Queue: 4 jobs
Job 1
Amino acid sequence: MSEAGVRIVEGASPNEVRDPATRREIKRAAVWLGMASAIALIVLLVQPLLIIFAGLVFAAMLDGGVRLLGRVLPIGRAWRLLIVCLLTVIFLIGTFVLTGVQVAEQVNQLRATLEAQAVLLSSWLTSHGLMPGASDISGIARQAMSSVGRLTSWVGTAVGALTTIFMILVIGLFIAMDPRVYERGLQWMIPEEKREEFAIVTERMGYTLRRLLFGRIIGMVAEGLLTWIALMIGGVPMAMILGILTGILAFIPNIGAFISGALMIAVGFSAGADTGIWAIGTYVIVQTFDGYVLIPMVAKRTVDMPPALTLGAQILASALFGILGLALADPMTAMIKAAMERRSETVEDEREQEALA
């Protein structure tokens, strides 16, 4: 109710748009501007986002252990998470205490062996005209190292790498403590009519991620143990550290197997032709067992990812995001695959409903 004597100006103000067509165009422009701003923000914050995603992956690993433990121990989630964390810490500390000295010695020996083998290989290639001279090699090496330095400049130093790992562990632990809180928070940011579908998609993605990581852990343990035992039987030097590296690199399919194979073959030939041939045989047998026996068995109960799809995702992720992107390419692809499969199911259901109508 207006007071007496107050004058009200009639007509539209300069900042008021009453034309419906103009309003529609402004809304469209605002949507496109918002999308462009979001893309630019993602590009600027890609490394922190990768660290957060790595924390989610670690949380999924902890959550999988908590769910698995819940099948045999009917206790609270917090206690099961504490048991999983304690068992993980005890395993890591026990492994390093029992084998720490031997592993440290083998790491230094491995580095010296690889450097010597690289010099021998480059000399052989140079003598046969298959590689540039020493001066050109040093130039190429400097250029490659500068490229790697630019690619991983966000890590910077060993302190930065340790800080990144620490943040990943902390984020994963906090999320694993009470994942429902973060799930509700995400759903609140989604329009109410879309929340049910969003909840289904996130549940599918989480389930797929847990199964994928479970299969990866089984593969890592199996490859590491088989490589260690086989190399030790064949008398290949540094069998323990090669087995550990093979198990760790097995987390990255395709590329990890190639790197671990090159390492064990180089070390094998450093001790002689016989051990080199044994190392080649070990690599072929372990990878054959992993590719034709272990992976198919695990894939039936976890996630079946086509090798070409995984390798293509790794190439793109490593080119765009660096080393961390390479390590997280497989979980990213699995979650995107789960979301697209759910979308395909939704489209098929809509088509069936339209056909019935």
Job 2
Amino acid sequence: MPHNGCPHQCSFCNQKSITGQAYQPTAEDVRKTLRQARLDLGERAKNAEIAFFGGSFTAIDREYMISLLDAAREFEGVFSGIRISTRPDAIDAEILALLKEYGVAAIELGAQSMDDHVLALNERGHSAEDVRTASRLIKSFGFSLGLQMMTGLYGSDFDKDTRTAEEFIALSPDTVRIYPTVVMKGTALEKYFLNGIYKPYTLGESVELCAELIRKFEDNKINIIRVGLHYSDSLIENGYCENYHPAFKELCESKLFYNSFLEKTKLLESRNIDITINRKSLSKLYGQRRSNLRAFEEMGYRVNIIFDDSLEKYEMRIGVSV
């Protein structure tokens, strides 16, 4: 639902370019999509959610919103529930009671930053306190709370982005999404970028920062359901994508293992190393195109990999090979 319900255009936002879509779905579109999804997914539909994303769902025309929810409610029991995204300042008790009535189970807030100066610079139109208030209200009604953040916004830096993540953790959301900022054509951010007022993080800087944010959220048992923008041809054609990568989360996870290796081996004299990990983490340890293993070898290490599936996803033990 690109831009629908948004009171203005934020500095970074061009939903049409990001998604390649401008069309607003009708209630019949919802029914058609869900009928097809039921056929395609079969029994797996029980684990799938109906999601309304792209705009501010609770700020759209009320009659239109209810027509979409009515269509979705016809599939109650087929799918696991309904998930919506909206603005922090478009939440109140009345709208939450309505969403509860229609079977909405999860609400994600596009918070983006918890720094009021950054929010103002990027024309968000809400405050960090709005995020706190909406989050607490959503949880009090029994909804699953999701928070979305953007790293590298105009006026932000590593410290401000890290503090945003820490404030998110304090609000105890069930899920988070992390979106590194990509400059899109047709936005205010494009003008700032071309004029030299705004300098985005490099890909390497984004990976370094987001790897640490992943660790923070994982350490606090908060489910990360997305890191980086979904790929679309429109995104590539309409964005300045030097700092974009379609497998961004994979890069971050590999960086976590790389950094952990350096930290755990810095006091070891031996270059013959045993690395113990959960077998599901093997590709993360290897890195894209085995980049981590090549780096370890170039440092002079001879690595032996051992599996212990009792270890957590990002946990790694280091020992000296005998």
Job 3
Amino acid sequence: MRRYGKHTDEDDIRSRPNRKGNRPRTHIRPKHEDAASGLVLTVDRGRLTCLVDDRIVLAMKARELGRKAAVVGDRVAIVGDLSGKKDTLARIVRIEERASVLRRTADDDDPYERVVVANADQLAVVTALADPEPRPRLIDRCLVAAYDGGLEPLLVLTKSDLAPPDKMLELYGDLDIPYVVTSRAELESGEAADRVLEQLDGRITAFVGHSGVGKTTLVNALVPEERRRTTGHVNAVTGRGRHTTTSALALPLSGAGGWVIDTPGVRSFGLAHVDPSRVIHAFPDLESGTEGCPRACSHDEPDCALDAWVAEGHADPARLYSLRRLLAARERTEGD
């Protein structure tokens, strides 16, 4: 039995209604070729504060990005209302390729890696010489993460008025890491900020360190117009400070032309995500000697070719010791 006549019209054909009342979904996504470029400054509960030209724009991640998340330092493509006016919200539709990534895991048994900062040129590892006592194992782990992620490390030693820096400088001297030593009096006078600024000129630098070392105090000295809440309190029992920075934040350096990214204080720095074979790239004087190493060499075993490489005078033995100390940091706890 024919339901329709010879000359049917679309209006005559019954269609099944869409129960959700929305448009049919499609796998074809817009290319957003007219999207504006932005820089993610901070992330707070799903809302991303971005710099677009000279405007601060609040945005959210577009659904088409799926689980891919943008972090501080990311270069992104943004569409929608880019006026930056109150109660406006734009959409991040694309995250550009990252030049570097600082990552960490909660601990060494956690397979889930967290991207802390993207596209930074440099990682400033801030540690106090006293109050709280320095934790070399945590410093080592930060250095491994920097080498693995493509960042150049910078060692910033604070509170030199409470303890001399000689021991720490000797411990890291063979790594050829640039360093700055500061005291509390120099922070107050501005002298410390001037010396640190020399290392930050024209670069994007992420600051990392455990709580109470004076990291945010130093950032406030570098960017006084954007002061963040700090603390001078260190727990007398644990010797550790309290977290005062709760989210990463990128701040512009008006004079030097670079950026500083203040990150929350860390109490652990897991390296479950790090491939040990990538750490050797930070030791060019040793890297050539690995050609004779057995497959999947840990560089700390009897058949490692680096021992003969150093014995032949191609590299300083202290450099090999430093490499192996950093690689071993993945297996050690972060206490002293």
Job 4
Amino acid sequence: MQTRPLGRTGLQVSRICLGTMTFGEQNTESEAHAQLDRAHEFGINFLDTAELYPIPPKAETQGATERHIGSWLKARGLRDQLVIATKVVGRSDSTWFRADGSKPRLDIRNIREALESSLKRLGVEAIDLYQVHWPDRPTSGFGSVPTRWKSPEEDPSEVAIEETLDALGELVKEGKVRHLGLSNESAWGTMRYLAHAERTGAPRVASIQNAYNLLNRVFEPALAEVALREDVGLLAYSPLGQGYLTGKYAGGARPAGSRKALFDRLQRYEKPGTAEAVDAYVALAERFGLKPATFANAFVLAQPFVTATIIGATTMEQLEECLAAEHVTWTDEMQAAVDAVHQRVGNPAP
């Protein structure tokens, strides 16, 4: 397994990261352990989770994913061989994340409570990469505004980026967090974090975890330059467009056990033009003799601003198709073919 530097931290992480958001909902604890075993055997040293998980988020299951990882870590004794990333939720109206029933915010009280809970569930003394899952400020995110950035009204209760970074910095000083990352963040927000770190000596963010895939390349115009020039590499989530890029939903299909069949939560990838784009990329995969899931992940891995692609699976067969991207040699012909389709269909599912 090839590795890449995680920002300027000095850590080397596998360029395929195992995402775990199905653990505790679509995957049982034993199934989660089987995936973790296979990932470790394959050479993956990078695991990503969140206090929010599993997906879909709900009070009854919240935290189960971290507990399943924690029980695996305890059973296998591999903590020192792994880079573990988790996340604190951003601004939310869900009152079941915090013990007192308050709405989460990215201030020191909320971040500290979230961290302590994650440490306990995972059974570890420190988090290697602690990420802000989404901003505290009102933003357009998770595909909510597909064609342009729309500024919501300002909220006087917004926690400033500088306050959030200072709070995270306290946890780094205490040794409970080693490095920091962002998620679902903009170029403006990322640069504000970096500027505050440079100005005050606060910890520098090492990565940004945003959606990036063949249907959504909006990371490229602004954030890719930030990633490359500032060494804040992309941890690309949803490399398969929530499964659409496998082709399994073609023609309106709803495979048994799929997220679409179980939860009907995939509207981000059901916008006008998306079906045409999916068909085109699946056809490209077949042209190059690859499974669509392997092809889509190989595309992500080939981009110079990417630190890792975050794969996710509910079956071992799906996991193997994603892992196979490690062995793909991405060619100029492949990139040209992808870019030609992109020029025609754009970003139908940002």
